[in-house]
Design a protein that fits this description.
- The chain is mainly α.
- The chain has one domain.
- Helices cover 85% and strands 0% of the residues.
- The longest helix is centred in the middle third of the chain and has 128 residues.
- The protein starts with a helix and ends with a helix.
Length: 193
């Protein structure tokens, strides 16, 4: 059975002969009642404080759980971002390598074409030089044959011994000029290479 402070304060006792002093009993009961009321008030305050602390602990636990979830989510996101960045960097690197290889391959093909063109041009030049030499040689041969068949126009103005020497000098001069021109052309071609 619970006893409240008011029960103590208003408790009345039956009187018996030679009993206790009622004023003293009442005074003591009043003191006990006040003390009990103060203890109950303190107990209620402690319960309220405990309830507030428990609510604060629950709130802190919720915050802690939220922080843990946030950290876990942030860790997962950072891992995902890192994995995505690594994947993207690998893709970019592979793409750059493929483009680099294509550029090198194109440069090699272009270099091969240039070397082929140079070789073709050298062949054409050599063929042209040979054709030119053959043409000049055939003209020289035709000139020699023409000199043998037709007399030189200067024959009428010179003595019989001089035309032959003059004709030889003219032929030699022409051959020398042609040889010199061929040498210069060949030298120019060698300088171009």
């Amino acid at each position: 059975m619970k006893i409240a402070p008011i029960d103590i304060a208003h408790k009345s006792f039956t009187r018996k002969m030679m009993g206790l002093d009622p004023d003293e009993v009442m005074s003591f009961l009043k003191t006990v009642s006040d003390e009990m009321e103060s203890l109950i008030s303190e107990r209620n305050n402690l319960r309220q404080s405990l309830r507030d602390k428990e609510l604060a602990i629950i709130e802190f636990k919720e915050r802690d759980e939220l922080l843990k979830n946030t950290i876990t989510t942030a860790t997962k996101m950072s891992d995902k971002i890192r994995v995505d960045a690594e994947r993207e960097s690998r893709l970019l690197l592979n793409d750059a390598n493929q483009k680099g290889e294509a550029i090198v391959r194109d440069a090699r093909d272009s270099l091969k074409r240039i070397y082929q063109e140079i070789t073709d041009l050298k062949k054409i030049r050599m063929q042209f030089e040979n054709n030119l030499k053959a043409l000049i040689q055939s003209h020289l041969t035709m000139m020699e044959q023409g000199q043998n068949v037709m007399p030189s126009p200067k024959v009428g103005h010179e003595t019989a011994a001089q035309p032959r020497r003059s004709m030889l000098n003219d032929d030699e001069q022409i051959k020398a000029n042609i040889s010199q021109a061929i040498s210069k052309a060949t030298q120019v071609n060698l300088d171009i290479e």
